[in-house]
Write a structure and sequence with these properties.
150 residues, four-stranded antiparallel β-sheet, globular, 8 strands, 3 helices, alpha+beta, Aminopeptidase
């Protein structure tokens, strides 16, 4: 059972912030063998969606307001713990991220910068490719957009 919490940056406890940065580092830096500066000064203006299994952070995404990363709201830093994969946690995280984004920012299109290999996953959630392939930190990415449902 996942317990979802969403908080602004300044409302995160030190333990929550540590868990977020640790999970992001574990997957994006260590697992994907990608040296990049994860702390990009967007965290402070974003909302942070955390999926907890008791006291273990197993899922996380960053909900970025319009005008920060893209003209539209954005969902980024989408990550599930390696210990929680294979059971649909990633899909639950994205569905909750979409719901929370719509609550926070209204019924607007949502833009993401997706790793290319996850295109099919994001397409299953209503996102469509909206850019050519581009390299970000040595990994092929595409922009994708999800139009709001009327």
């Amino acid at each position: 059972m996942i317990t979802w919490k969403i908080k602004k940056f300044n409302d995160l406890s030190p333990d929550e912030l540590y868990a977020i940065l640790r999970l992001r580092s574990e997957v994006f830096v260590v697992e994907q063998n990608c040296v990049f500066l994860d702390m990009d000064n967007k965290d402070q203006s974003s909302w942070h969606l955390m999926g907890w299994d008791n006291d273990l952070l197993i899922a996380y995404s960053r909900l970025v307001p319009p005008g920060i990363s893209y003209q539209q709201p954005s969902i980024g830093r989408v990550v599930t713990s390696p210990a929680a994969r294979g059971g649909g946690t990633g899909k639950l995280l994205m569905k909750e991220s979409i719901i929370q984004s719509e609550k926070l920012f209204g019924n607007l299109p949502i833009t993401i910068g997706a790793q290319l290999y996850l295109k099919k996953f994001y397409t299953s959630l209503g996102f469509e490719q909206s850019s050519d392939i581009y390299d970000e930190d040595g990994i092929d990415h595409i922009e994708m957009i999800r139009q709001p449902f009327s």
